[in-house]
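User: I'm curious what two different proteins look like when written out as structure tokens. Can you demonstrate?

Assistant: Sure. I'll show them one after the other, since each token string lines up with its own sequence. Here's the first protein:
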Amino acid sequence: MSMDALLYWVGMAAVAVNALTGVLDSGRKQMDLIGALLVAVATALGGGTVRDLLLDRNVFWVADQTYLIAALGTGLVAFFVVRRRSLPPRLFLIPDAVGLALFTIIGTQVALQWHTPWLAASLMGVITGVVGGVLRDILCNDVPSIFLKGELYATAAWVGALTLIGLQELGVRPVDAAWTAMGVVLALRLFALRFGLTLPALGQPR
């Protein structure tokens, strides 16, 4: 598989997964169909939109509305599947971890292809990975989890982005580097959730 094909299909999967997390989280607030779809679309497309605006490139879902259709379609299906079910409050965390891994690597690789310096490219990966979740939390009237003491989130994304860049600098094929880096993000995030790994917080006793 070429890198362009990988970016396209992984990007589509990331949009679908993040739209699902948006619907799952909006279910806690008992939103109606339109509210849930708005949360789903913001979660699925928000990070990539901010990345593209910062890179001064065509916004990906405007250039190819298939991404928008995927977000709306996934959100619509998810809404009717879960609307009558009692959902555990942390159910969205697993698909959210998958979406974080997918979008982080896509964002980093897109920035690298746009000839962005490596440090800025890694931060573009983090932005792509986490901004959708920030928008989801805001629309659900929650403090964004990235700003609260909690299990590694943006840190996992940044480690994965730097892994992608480092592997490519070492001569690893871009596609292989991308899959490896996605695995790093996902493993680190799931490991943090399982064992409660966090960074030091302000006001925390030494």
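Here's a second, unrelated protein for contrast:
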Amino acid sequence: MKKHSDVVFRPLFKLTEYLIIIMLLIIPIQIIVFSIAPPPDSVLEFFELFRENAFLGLLSLDFLYLINNTIMIVLYLSLFIALYKEKPVTSLIAFVIGLTGVVCYYGSNPSFEMMTLSKKFFEARMSDQIIYIAAGEALLAGYSGTSFNVYYVLNTICLLLFAYILIKSPIFKKSVGYWALASGFFMIIPSSAGMIGLIFSLLSLIPWVVFIGLLRLEFKNKFSL
């Protein structure tokens, strides 16, 4: 017989299953986009890109990660509910830290602001265009600034805490927790920390994909029947 909490939150776990599929599709799409059309190096190039192809401009500024991080909120909530009875304090801390990190990311992403500035830049007189270039430079500085780094660090801590609980959990397979731990290890160095940060960020995607894939199967087999 299923626990009452499992039955009550079954729709949430089912939703998480489908959202994980979307997340698994977003990751390769973003990699393909960055490989085929690398992001511009300057504000003027971003403005040109937005004028030529606004959607590609949004993708170049991680628009898909806005969707991905919204999914993360549901994923963290599902993990919190599934693990609360076993490690209530640790799971609550992990959820709050993860949620705070996701909120920080929304403030760091300048995709729509850059699109607006691009439009205003090309509508402005030449003497006024410098204003929009300066505003764009400020946005790009914040793109990998404090908010982004707080997001990255907090999500790393959140993932490591959930990994610990998953490894200790009698409900989930230990392999799920170990893959989460591996992904969290490679996330210790933020992606904004130069080339080594970029390498570690890319390496973290491999165990992350395995982790959420296994997690989806766990939710499907143990909570959504």
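A detail about the second structure: The mean pLDDT is 89.
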